[in-house]
Every structure is written in structure tokens, then in C-alpha cells.
Amino acid sequence: MSNVSVLNMEGKEVGTLELNDAIFGAKIKEHLVHQAVVLQLANNRQGTQKAKTRSEVRGGGRKPWRQKGTGHARQGSIRAPQWTGGGVVFAPQPRDYSFKMNKKEKRAALLSALTSKVQDKKFIVLDELKLDNVKTKDMKKVLDNLNVSSAILVLGKENENVVLSARNLPGVAATTVNTLNVYDLLKYNTVIATKASVASIEEVYA
């Protein structure tokens, strides 16, 4: 099992923590990580884009001029795709972009993302993360102490003061263990977790 330093909110080392290799030392499966990211982005798409085909656009029921003898190219409708105001060829229609992954694949993708952060030394463990008040400045000070600019804060349970204090910082987000996902782990440069949240992750994914 690998050990990581445990820091306080001042950025000073106050101990070490032994990580479970089954979770933080898993085999990295890049194809599943990629699939998990595509899954989340696809499932977030509304799929409501719509344009009218030539059968749906209004007008154009009459042939604009006779077939021969006018000097113009033959036309059957003023709502054909080549006309201004005409229908769209292969117009986009509402559709569902979502798809599914197996639970084991989702778990393997998440463990791969966590393992990569640990291997890249982008995984910071705090003894605790508490703020008495909602203050963006206090949250910024904690991140400066840790020498971090872009981070996802993983909390063991919902902490409103931390969530609201981090909300206005660019490149910073807060989440809980039960809403942790691959996309957020990869989007932010560093993962900052409390000892309690690490224990929760090991309990959930053990």
C-alpha cells in the first residue's frame, strides 16, 4: 500500500495516510476512462436541436414556372433546399444521445482516474477542511497554502460553507464522495480530499 502525506489547511504536514491499493493503485484502463467521459458528456446533451425538412416547411406547393422554355433551370418547388427559405437537407431531429456503461466498467474508470492522480502526485489529503463562515477569501487562502490553483474538493459529506466559499473561484469545484465522477477528476488539475472522504471512498469502492 502507498502512503501519502496528510496536510493541514496551512499546508503543513501533520501525518501520513496509507491508501488502499485496490482503489488508489488500480490498473489504469484508459479506454474505460475515455468511455466514461464520453458517456457523461453525451448524457448531458439535451438533444433538442431541430430544423425543418422540405416536407415540413410552409409553402412551395405550386411549381414556380413551367418545365421548359423559360431559360431558367427546372424547379418543382420554391421550398426545395437550394431556395432561400427552403427546407434543410438531412435536417437535425430531436434525439437521445445517452448510452449506458456497466457498473463494473464505471467503477474501473473511476478507480483508474483516482490512481492516475495519485501516481501523478496530484492527490492531496487534508486532515480536515472546515470554514467557520462563507468566505471566498478564506478558501483561496487554503488553496494558496497548498500551492494549488485548479482543484476538485472531495468532501466526506455536504459542507455548505466550503461549497459556497469555493463556488466563485475559477477552476475550483466541490463535490461529495457519492457524486464523484471521472469527468470532474480529469477536468481539474488536483484532487483535494479529506481523511474522512478518503475513508468513505475506500468504504464505497472496496
Automatic annotation (TrEMBL):
Q: Name one GO biological process term.
A: translation
Keyword rRNA-binding tagged: yes
Q: Where is this region: Disordered?
A: 45-78
- Composition-biased stretches, type Basic residues, lie in 60-71
Alphabetical GO CC annotations of the entry are:
ribonucleoprotein complex; ribosome
Residue ranges crossing the lipid bilayer per the database entry: none
Q: What Pfam families does its record include?
A: Ribosomal_L4
**Looking at the keywords, is Ribonucleoprotein present?**
yes
Family the UniProt entry places it in: Belongs to the universal ribosomal protein uL4 family.
Classification via NCBIfam families: rplD_bact
Q: What does this protein do?
A: Forms part of the polypeptide exit tunnel.
Q: What is this protein called?
A: Large ribosomal subunit protein uL4
Q: Which organism is it from?
A: Blautia liquoris
